[in-house]
Amino acid sequence: MAWIVRGLWSVNPYKMVIAVANQKGGCAKTTTAVNLAAALSKGSKRQKLPPAKVLLIDLDPQGNCATSFGVEKKKVKRTAYDLLTNDTGEDLPLMDEYLISPRDLTESMKEAWSMRNGGKAAPENLTVDNLWLLPSDIHLSGAEIELSHKIGRETRLREALLPIIDNFDYIIIDTPPSLGLLSINAMCAANWVMVPVQAEYYALEGFSMLMNSIKMIQRRINRNLKIFGVAMTMVDARSKLSRHVCDQVNTKMPKKLFKTTIRRLVKVAEAPWSGAPTVLLNKPTNSGAGAGSLEYWTLAKEFHQRVMAMRREFGVNEQPRLLLDPNR
Question: Nearest Cα to 189, choosing from 161, 215, 218?
Fold first, then answer.
């Protein structure tokens, strides 16, 4: 359902379009965006998490979302750069030409896993379900300069997504570690912001700056933008500093902080090397290689529960897109 605001087409203010943002680098933005998107799309009976139709958008010129699924960026034909710099004024064939499908993501993951494991066949359950990806590459770094003199430079992503926005239950946008034009496009297209915060001292200063930037965007560009949640990442429970940072964030935004915390775990960082997010690569367990997978599955479950609670509170009735898909 589309809404009209000041003569411009906008989206339903409760549509789940989420920008994963923090101008500080190294706070697990991409890891969080990728694992959250993968978990929400696949679903889990054990976690009581229903599968959903998800679009993951990479607005970081590093292009690590594609790498997380084993996609070779040199083989990608269309990227977020082509989307943002389009000046034709016409709707683009996003589903057919710009987005990487679940089938192609699955093939890329299996090929990457096989290559990293001496040519062995990839596990049958290493699959991507219901997840589409708009990739990026280094060319996106030039988009901010190219768009600086263009009309509607802040709204390019929002306008491009309007034809397909109702095809998905969730649209998750990964952003670069800066508050430039790319991040502004993400927060202009989104209704919600999810903030991963690294449990280290300098993160507190960056967190305050981000909150100020979000308030500015709310006032001047996107009145529908709201904070969905704050997730503590790279937490070391043995560290006094780590606990202090978590306490400080909880004091600032107690109703927004997720109960689930993501620890600093080697296996989570290693997962992209095998060409798959940890939630797909490792079986969730309380210890060992599956610990990080369990934490992200738990975060996805809490994320879903928060969405459901919000919809009940405001009387929002959204039918799951997978139930409406005639091809299923």
Answer: 161
